[in-house]
Amino acid sequence: MAEEGFTTRILHADRRAGTEHGAVHKPIHTSSQYAYTDARELAAVFQGKPGFSYARQGTPTTAALESKLTQMEGARASIVFATGMAALMAMFSTLLKAGDQVISSRYLFGNTASLYGTLQQLGIEVTLVDATDTQAVAAAVTHRTRIIFVESIANPGTQIADLVGIGELAKRKGLLYVIDSTLTSPYLLQAKDVGAGLVMHSLSKHIAGHAQGLGGVLIDTGLFDWSTYDNILPTYRKGDSAGWGLTQIKKKGLRDMGATLAAEPAHRIAVGAETLSLRLEKACQNALMLAEHLASHPAVKTVYYPGLTSHPQHVRAAELFGNRFGTLLSFEPQPQIDCFDLLNDLRVVILATHVGDTRTLALPVAHTIYHEMGPAMRLEMSISDHLIRVSVGIEDPQDLRNDFDQAFAKLT
Ligand SMILES: *Cc1c(COP(=O)(O)O)cnc(C)c1O
């Protein structure tokens, strides 16, 4: 039989892995601990045999979600966390030590940029580069570089890093390549195809999809050779080296740090994930429609959306993401329009942070998610004071167009 498609595999994953009473969803396991009748078996689980002990390290419900996410990326294994930020902190803090260097795209989600401040205080060097250009990344590599980190589509500027070029560079230099693929999701990008060793997603966004639960994941694609990674502790250098990286992250980053995904949100995320492809097809179409509409509107100065031919990485995005360009756009209205007044006149679009919801959301970037960063850093990241970020949902397209039109009409 031919290999099944993306959505079929997600829909049937729980049932095929085996569930009680023929349930089509993995049940929500709320037990904090898992008991054994044989003490030797209990000890074996502590010593690495697959199984459950204490729910901080996972439950059958989170394991079912992990297995689904691994399948979605065509990868080797996954670990879920309470939030996307918890996944990022667990990854950086357990794979790096003082004196190491991370090279990162400077076009970043605001909290990741803020997290870098914490890493720097711990003695980890963070070098921000223009990752749309592999030469800029290559020029920053030193003998202390351990990780290259980029976002697949940068939040909120929509810059597209040279994902393929950086993958080749990382391979040549033997560096771990980590992609935050939150804005693409496994439906638009299989991060393995561009050479990523680890993929991170905020599950709170497209994968959950309905703004109904927070979560994060780190997925090992199986491409990186962990036996070459200096920072794996001696206790985790055992057995098949393919598992070393995630084992260290799970023990040090999940068990010790404790940002565990609870079973209830894990279940909601898993159910949301079933319709990922449907939601993304629709939301990407809506986003392209809205980006084109805004770009042709006299009240709008600039629109940033990879689907527009004016976007500097339009061709790259088309090749990488199969002619779908994501659900996030940002724009600057003409200078005489106050971005607060414009936002206040929207009736369908919700004024809220978050991305990847079924509903369309908008917010003034510099004054909210990038406020704490200050003007100098905003300038470096190309965030203007008037920039509005729109996360496009699955509403009927004419309602989105009409909503912006009526808001502009009130102001001009
Ligand atoms: C939201 C987001 C995160 C953080 O995820 P949370 O689940 O909110 O902690 C990280 N990266 C990107 C690109 C995001 O959009």
List keywords for this structure.
single chain, 7-stranded mixed β-sheet, 5-stranded mixed β-sheet, globular, 12 strands, 412 residues, Aspartate Aminotransferase, domain 2, Aspartate Aminotransferase, domain 1, 14% strand, binds pyridoxal-5'-phosphate, alpha/beta
Structure description:
With 412 residues, this protein is an alpha/beta fold. The chain folds into 2 domains: 6-271, Aspartate Aminotransferase, domain 2 (3-Layer(aba) Sandwich); 276-411, Alpha-Beta Complex (Aspartate Aminotransferase, domain 1). 38% of the residues lie in helices and 14% in strands. It has 15 helices and 12 strands. The chain has a 7-stranded mixed β-sheet with strand order 1-7-6-5-4-2-3, with helices on both faces. It has a 5-stranded mixed β-sheet with strand order 8-9-12-11-10. Helix 7 links the parallel strand 4 (145-151) and strand 5 (176-180). Helix 3 (60-72) packs parallel to helix 10, helix 4 (84-95) crosses helix 9 (244-255) and helix 11 (276-295) runs parallel beside helix 15 (397-411). The protein is globular and about 75 Å long. The protein binds pyridoxal-5'-phosphate (PLP). Pyridoxal-5'-phosphate binds next to helix 4 and helix 5.
Set out the fold topology.
Elements (H helix, E strand, L loop, with lengths): L5 H12 L21 H8 L13 H13 L4 E5 L2 H12 L5 E5 L4 H12 L3 E5 L4 H7 L4 E7 L11 H11 L2 E5 L4 H4 L9 E5 L13 E5 L23 H12 L7 H11 L2 H20 L4 E5 L9 H7 L7 E6 L5 H6 L5 E2 L9 E4 L10 H6 L7 E4 L5 H15 L1
Parallel strand pairs: 2-3, 2-4, 4-5, 5-6, 10-11
Antiparallel strand pairs: 1-7, 6-7, 8-9, 9-12, 11-12
The chain binds pyridoxal-5'-phosphate.
Pyridoxal-5'-phosphate (PLP) binds next to helix 4 and helix 5.
